[in-house]
Description:
This protein is α+β, with helices and mostly antiparallel strands and 255 residues long. Helix content is 36%, strand content 17%. The protein has helices at 5-16, 23-26, 66-70, 75-89, 93-102, 129-140, 191-196, 210-222, 224-227, 244-254; strands at residues 27-28, 33-39, 49-54, 63-64, 105-114, 123-127, 156-161, 171-176. Strands 1, 2, 3, 4, 5, 6, 7 and 8 form an eight-stranded mixed sheet that branches. Strand 5 (105-114) and strand 6 (123-127) form a beta hairpin. Helix 4 (75-89) packs antiparallel against helix 5 (93-102) and helix 8 (210-222) packs parallel to helix 10. Mean pLDDT is 85; it is low at 227-242. The structure holds zinc ion (ZN). Zinc ion binds at residues 54, 65, 67-68, 74, 76-77, 104.
Amino acid sequence: MAINIEAMRAKLNASKTGNKGQTNNTKWRPTQGDQTIRILPTADGDPFKEFHFHYNVGKNPGIMCPKRNHGEDCPICDFASKLWKQGVDNDNATLKQEAKKLFVRKRYYSPIIVRGKETEGVKVWSYGKTAYETLLGYVLDPDYGDVTDPETGTDMVLNYDVPGTPGSFPKTTLKPRRRPSVLCDEAVADCNELITSIPDIGGLFDKKSTEDVQALLDDFLSSDDSSEKKSNETTKYSKNDSGIDAAFDKFMKNE
Ligand SMILES: [Zn+2]
């Protein structure tokens, strides 16, 4: 029997990334249309977690901001502010726009179960500011209150609409069910087991050190991706000019 190359690739990947293969199962994305979810209560009393990421740094997925998440220095935040200031000083809209793309963004995360798929266990749902504020609004509305309470909480109908037009964002609409309900029907799933199996949400992301982030930023600024589309200049950012100032100067010249 020949070796399964795809399986080997997956194993290597899992090994390199510290074996976080299971997180792919845990993170949940809604599908187009309606789905019913139940947000689970967390031990610390706050099931709506906030994390800060940088996007648009090359092909990297969201990069955890060391500053906003852990109080350490963040080269991307520094770079983006410098870019922004330069844009303001020179009244340069392009620079301001580039800076904006790099500014830190908040994402919100909650442990949930998906109705009809309770046996798949706890998932972590990631959502934006609008959904976050809607959820807090329901919690603070005496008609709903603690929507996560296992006995008297409320399921949410989540409508996810992905517009077909380019450049438009998916829209998430949340509507609580009219009646409260128990979290688990014991015939379907073990309620205590579900609650105790809620993962540490912060642990789902790669924590990046200041040095890690610097390396990702250097890479991004030296890549064809960031420089070529901004100018015809063919010289590449030299690896010898390390540090944010050199990168910044280079970036500016490319404008
Ligand atoms: Zn940052």
